[in-house]
């Protein structure tokens, strides 16, 4: 069925359909960005894996050579390179976390579109509550729950971001999040 659009509205025009279109555009943008980022990060990860393999081979060769100043220096550079690679791997883990957050946003936007597009759900407070609880339950970090709760308590975006940052700072730096 063809519906009227905001640029040529008729009696069938609906702000709900316009909202759904905008939410759908947002979902497509997020998912497209995730896909593009995935391809780049996968290539980087593959390259780093090959670099680690080559570095180990160089270290094995140098370990068999009689130690002299050049060998010791080369082994030092290999060690330094491995530390840099390890830091890069940690950065990839943060990217992975960001990607998962964006995937959650995409799923949430899809769910929101479905609620808005279904009249018996749109006007049912229990459907909204169930959807909100579903979103909150998927958060793995306490800081995300703090941010979610702040927004639902009526705080502004800036206030919620401050609370989110504060909760992140308060979490133990040694705490490992599995996601």
The 3D shape can be described as elongated
Uncertain ranges = 174-179
Strand coverage percent:
under 5%
Overall pLDDT metric: 86
Number of helices: 6
- Could you give the distance between the termini? 41 Å
Question: Helix/strand-derived class?
Answer: mainly alpha
Q: SSE order in H/E notation? A: HHHHHH
Number of strands: 0
The Rg value, from CA coordinates, equals 25 Å
Largest sheet: none
Instruction: Give the % helix.
Output: over 70%
Short description:
The chain has 179 residues and is mostly helical. It has helices at 15-64, 69-117, 119-122, 125-137, 142-152, 157-170. The longest helix is centred in the N-terminal third of the chain and has 50 residues, at 15-64.
Model description:
With 179 residues, the chain is mostly helical. 79% of the residues lie in helices and 0% in strands. It has six helices and no strands. It has helices at 15-64, 69-117, 119-122, 125-137, 142-152, 157-170. The radius of gyration is 25 Å and the shape is elongated.
